[in-house]
Amino acid sequence: ILLLERGAFEGVHAAMMVHPAPDDVAMPGMIAAATFDVTYTGKEAHAAGWPWLGVNAADAMVVAQTAIALLRQQMEPTDRVHGIVTHGGDAANIIPARTRARFMVRSTKIEQLQPLHDRVMRCFEAGALATGAVLSVDGGYSPYADVRHDPDMAAAYERNAIALGRSFIKPDRPSGSTDMGNVSMAIPSIHPFIAIDSLPAVNHQPEFASHCVTPSADKAVIDGAIAMAW
After folding, report:
1. CB-count exposure of residue 71 (10 Å: 0-12, 13-18, 19+)
2. CA atoms within 13 A on the CB side of 149
3. Are 132 and 42 within 8 A, CB to CB?
4. CB-count exposure of residue 167 (10 Å: 0-12, 13-18, 19+)
5. Going edge to edge, which strands form the sheet with 80-87?
6. Residues 6+ apart with CB under 8 A from 227
7. Which residues face 87 on adjacent strands?
8. In the predicted model, what is the mean pLDDT of residues 7-22?
9. What is the pTM of this model?
């Protein structure tokens, strides 16, 4: 995104890349995404002796996560909200005065991302309201756009890969997000998946990483390069 903003893609006619996956997919559904950090600040207190003097920042995070879980039943089936708590407190006998989490929201199109982001923010505001903790949010300002595959380039890539002996599936669900989406808004682009015969292992599992150093993965590197070059 910074490269785009600073003119690195000016004069470029097209962009292509392939990404390892369990299956070959010509035009995977790469959706828009925003990442942000959430911090609650409360007040310490002895958890057994004077807990009523504390403001529990960990409880604020629990309230927010519960609200997000309930929100999911009113979300579009293709929307995603997920995150991790990166700091949950300092000791079991101290009311947590600070908790921190990193969350992501994703939607099919970048135009749909902000309304979802706003609804999720209200869940975090609910945590602050319920506990008295102070909420601060950092990030989420430069979201990844959804990938708009150029259909002619994608068709040419698929034909070339089939000529190399590969077979393709049609995706039935969102499969991730990438800043290649922002590039695809500016110039014709493709971002196909190339199979490394990893099933049942899928992306972001240690077993998938192990498949990336197999002969099948080595062949995928060469096939992907040739299909793009052709």
Report:
1. middle
2. 21
3. yes
4. exposed
5. 80-87, 98-107, 32-41, 134-139
6. 18, 157, 160, 161, 164, 166
7. 100
8. 95
9. 0.88
The residues, any chain, with a CB within 8 Å of residue 165's CB and separated by 6 or more, are none
The number of angstroms, rounded, from the C-alpha of 21 to the middle of its chain's C-alpha atoms is 16
Token pair, residue 183, equals: 């590039």
User: Rounded to an integer, what distance in angstroms lies between the CA atom of residue 113 and that of residue 110?
Assistant: 5
Q: Which residues pair with 35 in a beta bridge?
A: 104
**Identity at 21, one-letter amino acid code:** A
For residue 41, pLDDT over 80 is answered with yes
Residue 106's H or E segment, with its range, is strand 98-107
* pLDDT bucket at 174, cuts 50 / 70 / 90: confident
CB 76 within 8 A of CB 107: yes
Confidence of residue 21 (pLDDT cuts 50, 70, 90): very high
